[in-house]
Structure formats: structure tokens, C-alpha cells
């Protein structure tokens, strides 16, 4: 299949990659604001919980995939100071900010695509993937690449917004995300379209059972599923088997 969803639109895989790259290059200065708006400011607590869920097995090499400006890597560094951390992101502007943030630390930044990572086989102990999966142009291929670079038994800690949220909050969250967030994006970030895409990308993303099936068919087993705020965001922990 050569066509995928970009928000509400159906586009070619290569077109989505370029659109996502352009979008995040433009909004790199407002990246944290985006997550604040989408999560009511709770994404910091969810990311903290992600880190706390990582066992203390002293991983040698950690891949922060779709690592953006490095907020997850900063938390990883505090917990695993002896580990090598690699931030991998499609957006050059995001990676540029991450490089500046960690210029004196053992953290390496790579500007590249999750669908074709410039990393050897079986070299990574664990992968963190925070609010990035739904932006990948080819999710199956990206998961296959994760399988390739992970060591056997290695884990993916995948934190993502989800349309699987509770029916009790659906009317209010749908109104907020569809009507309010894009207008705030227009007012503050001067980019209504980017914020509209982000809300559309959540509503048009896989429900969590579907997402777990995709990981399963690509060689992973999900042994933990943790929901936040009625399922607005979900932490799935997958193991390479």
C-alpha cells in the first residue's frame, strides 16, 4: 500500500514524510506547547511515568526514536548516565535544538527517517517512542526497523495519543481538540494547520487493539498497556521475541 493518512487526507507515503518533516521544522519552537495543549499539560507526568517503567537493567545503548528536541533523552540521561543515548528524528530543526541542549553530554543526535535507520542490526537495548509513531509515514516499515536494530529481548516503550479514550470524556475532548486547539495554535504559534493536523492525526490513528496487532505481526509482544486520563494517551511496552 503506497497511500497513508496525513490527518484527514490520504496521501502517498513519500508525500507524508515530506509534509511531516516540513511541519515539525516549522513548529520546532512550539513543540512543548503542542504537547501541553494536547495533554492539558500532563504529558510531562506521563513521560516521567514512562521512564519509571523502564527497569534498571543498565542498558548499554538507548534509542530515543522521534526524540525531537530531547525531552525524553534528558530524563533518560538522569536515570542512565552510563548509557549511550541516540536521538533519532526526521526534523532537522528539532535535532538542531537537541544537539544544542546536549552538547556536553554522551548523547548523539541523528537526523533521519524511522523507516530506514542508519544503525546496525541488534545494536540497541531499548527504544523510547514518545508521541511520534502516528507521524511516521510507514508504520509497518518503522516497526520492522525497530525490530532489526533491537537486541533480542529488547523493549520498545511507546507512549502515544490514542482515539481509544473513554466514552465519558469523548464529547468534551472531541470539542476541545477539534475546535479549541487549532484556534490556540493559530493565536499563539501562528500555525493553525499544524495544530489541526495533530488533532486529526489522533482521531484517525489506530485504536489500541489494532496498534498492538501491528506490533505483534512484526515480531513484538505487548506485555504492558497503561492508560492515562481515560485513554487519551496510552503507554504500551513491547518486547522483541
CA-atom Rg in angstroms: 17 Å
Let me know the number of strands: 9
Question: Strand fraction band?
Answer: 15-25%
The number of domains is: 1
CATH superfamily: Vaccinia Virus protein VP39
Summed up, the helix count is: 9
CATH class bucket: Alpha Beta
Oligomer classification: single chain
Question: How helical, in percent, are the residues?
Answer: 40-55%
Spatial sequence of strands, sheet with the most strands: 5-4-3-6-7-9-8
From the spread of the alpha carbons, the general shape counts as: globular
Overall CATH architecture: 3-Layer(aba) Sandwich
How does this structure look, described?
The protein has helices at 13-26, 31-39, 43-53, 71-79, 92-101, 139-149, 170-189, 192-203, 208-217, and strands at 3-6, 9-12, 61-65, 84-89, 107-111, 124-130, 150-161, 220-228, 233-240. The protein has 241 residues and is of the alpha/beta class. The chain has one domain: Rossmann fold (3-Layer(aba) Sandwich), CATH 3.40.50. A seven-stranded mixed beta sheet has the order 5-4-3-6-7-9-8, with helices on both faces. The chain has a two-stranded antiparallel ribbon with strand order 1-2. The longest helix has 20 residues, at 170-189. The protein is globular. The two termini are 26 Å apart.
Topology:
Blueprint: E1 3-6, E2 9-12, H1 13-26, H2 31-39, H3 43-53, E3 61-65, H4 71-79, E4 84-89, H5 92-101, E5 107-111, E6 124-130, H6 139-149, E7 150-161, H7 170-189, H8 192-203, H9 208-217, E8 220-228, E9 233-240
Helix pairs in contact: 7-8
